Amino acid sequence: IESLSAIYNGSDHLVVAGTEKFKPMNAWNGGPAADGSKGGAGAKSLQPAGSRRVNNNRDSRANASKSKGQWQVRVSTQSGPEEHGTSSRVFITVYGRQGSSEPIALSMPIQTDCIVDPFQAGQEDEFEINTGPIGEVMKVRLSHDCSGPAPDWCVGQLVMTDAHTAEQLTFDFNCWLSDSRPDCEPSKELPAVREGARPLPMEKYTVEVRTGSCFNASTEAAVSVVLFGDYGDTGPRKLSRPVSGAQQPFQMGQ
Question: Where along the chain is composition biased (Polar residues) (predicted)?
Answer without folding.
Answer: 62-80
